Amino acid sequence: MTIRVLVVDDQELVRAGFSALLRNDGIEVVAEGGNGRQAVELAQRHRPDVVLMDVRMPVMDGIEATRTILGNWPAADGEPPRIMMLTTFDLDDYVFAALRAGAAGFLLKDTRPAELLDAVRVIARGEALLSPGITRKLIAEFARQPAPAARPTGGQLRELTEREVDVLRLVGTGRSNQEIAAELFVSEATVKTHLGRVMAKLHLSSRAQAVVVAYESGLVRAGSQGG
């Protein structure tokens, strides 16, 4: 099935480059936008599978656009697009803000073309993705970041079963579904089921958000990432 992508970046040359790369690989670019406000309008109009979203843009930045798109998506329209944040900056507050806003992934703009194409396909499948290196830096440095005003309450976490808590904790350490399955002696399908229930109970829209929650809830602390 053809993947439909919306490309949003305030630099026309960057947009053109990303769009050409995607089209050359058989991915449909449904539209291009130059700021967050256009991203919101174009996402509503074209209903893409994936949005490649720059973080720092005029009029409305990518984080606010992500929050707006995901927060206002009509249930009647099915699943909202998966949003991949793109930036020239390695780990800063924008990474955490983007994940809290519901972004499904985060890549640096200097990512190699093949990796970007693979990332789009991973995101389109409904999986979360952080560029190699960012995941471990995210986990290692999360404790240094200020916690947001709103976080899951103890009551919310108590809605999880013991096994669901185990899965959330292991997701927070950066383990894949396959690694979690091996550690818990269950199938990958079972891990996916538990993770789906965790995300539904905690109202999360991406695996990346689950990493954030695992830290903010105290289930995981810096230095406990997987090998």
Automatic annotation (TrEMBL):
The keyword DNA-binding applies. InterPro entries: CheY-like_superfamily, NreC/VraR/RcsB-like_REC, Sig_transdc_resp-reg_C-effctor, Sig_transdc_resp-reg_receiver, Tscrpt_reg_LuxR_C, WalR-like. Residues 153-218 form the HTH luxR-type domain. Keywords: DNA-binding, Phosphoprotein, Transcription, Transcription regulation. It comes from the Bacteria. CDD domains: LuxR_C_like (cd06170), REC_NarL-like (cd17535). It holds the Pfam family Response_reg. The modification 4-aspartylphosphate is found at residue 54. Gene3D superfamilies: 3.40.50.2300. Residues 4-124 form the Response regulatory domain. PANTHER family: TRANSCRIPTIONAL REGULATORY PROTEIN NARL-RELATED, TWO-COMPONENT RESPONSE REGULATOR. This is Response regulator.
